[in-house]
Give the backbone structure.
Amino acid sequence: MKTNFTGDISDVFACLAMLGTSGCGFEHQLQSVRMALSGFVADNNGFLRSDAHLAVVYITDEDDCSAPADSTLYGGAVSGQDGSLRCSLVGHLCGGSSPPASEFSTPLGNCSAAPDGGGKLIPVQTFIDEMNRLRTQSVSVSVIGGWPDDVATASYAIGYDPTSSWSDLLSSIPICKSANGSAAVELRMKQFVDAFGAAGKIISICQDDFSNAMTQVGELINTTVECQ
C-alpha cells in the first residue's frame, strides 16, 4: 500500500472546509466537483487513478444551483423574495410545471428536478455523464443534505418561514429541521444520487448527531468497493 499523507486528515479537512452556512446563497455543489475532477484544472491531473475508488460526499443545506459562467440568473435581487428561491423556481418541477413565485404547497412526491435545468441551470444529467466517464475503478456518491426522513408525508412548500431571519421574504420552506438548523429540499442533488443506483445515497442533514450519517457513508463506500 502506498501512502502519500501521514498527518491528521481532520487537520486537512479543517483547512479546506468552512463550518457554517455563510457565504454565497447560490450553491454550486455539482459544478465545483465537476471542475475538480473532470480535467478543467490542470493542477488536479493525476488525482484520479484507474485502480482507485472515488468516494464523493456532499454536505449541504440547500439544493444545487450550478449555472454556466455567463448566466444572468444571479443578477440583482428580486423584490420580496429570498435570493435562493430563484434556484428552486428554475430548477424544480411540481406536477410538470415550475413552482409559482407565491405561497404554494404540494406533496413532495409530485416534485422533481427540471430535466433541462429550467433552461438556466446546468442540467443534472451533464454532471452524471461526466462522473461516469471518470477513470476510476468505482464511484460512490453520498449526499448529507436537505431530505426528509419520510418522503411519503413530506411537503414541498414555498412561503414565509417565521423561524428564519428573512421571515418577511418569500422563500423555500425547510424540508427538515433539527437542533443543528434547517435545510431546503434538494431535488437536483437527489436526481444526481439516484443515477448511481446502489452506489448512491442521500441522508438527511437535519440530525442532532451525525455519527449515524457518517456510518452510512462509510458502509456505502465499503460496499461499493467490495462489489468491484
User: Anything to note?
Assistant: DSSP finds six helices and ten strands in the chain. The longest strand covers residues 138-145. The helical segments are 9-16, 29-37, 85-91, 124-132, 187-194, 211-226. The mean pLDDT is 89.
